[in-house]
Structure prediction request, 161 residues.
Amino acid sequence: MNPTVGIAVILTVLQAAHCQMIRDLSACLLGQNLRVDCRYENKTSNPLTYEFSITKDNRKQIIHSTMKASETNYRNRANVTMHKNLLCLYLQGFTTSDEGVYMCELRATNDYTGNQIKNITVIKDKLEKCAGFSLLIQNTSWLLLLLLSLPLLQAVDFVSL
Prediction:
């Protein structure tokens, strides 16, 4: 076998072997609190470790993590929930001093292809409010949304069945 072909095959196999991949990172305001959603695709049942951090003034600060210890000033303010390929960071009492570049980092146990990392710049004045309907859209299949919206469409005489 040609060594160049062998290396190409190995790289292809390693690329396909990623156990998780961050699909989207978004942020919104929930009252006076910040919510950062880290959506990922997990192709394994191996345990997932994560780290939410912020970079401001060229200094990385860990907000909440299963990999390392969190910064003292975030310990009592930060909470993370995990549900069906979605990690949500909730930061209580979000102010302009909490603005910066937020990072979600994921690693599956025994995944030797490296961590998955995604960043988002968070500025309080530019954040949208978290909306219940947008959460419904993000977490519901299009078919279910169509079925749920049929009565509304009928009410405005848009669809006649």
Summary: The first strand starts at residue 20 and ends at 30. The chain has a mean pLDDT of 79.
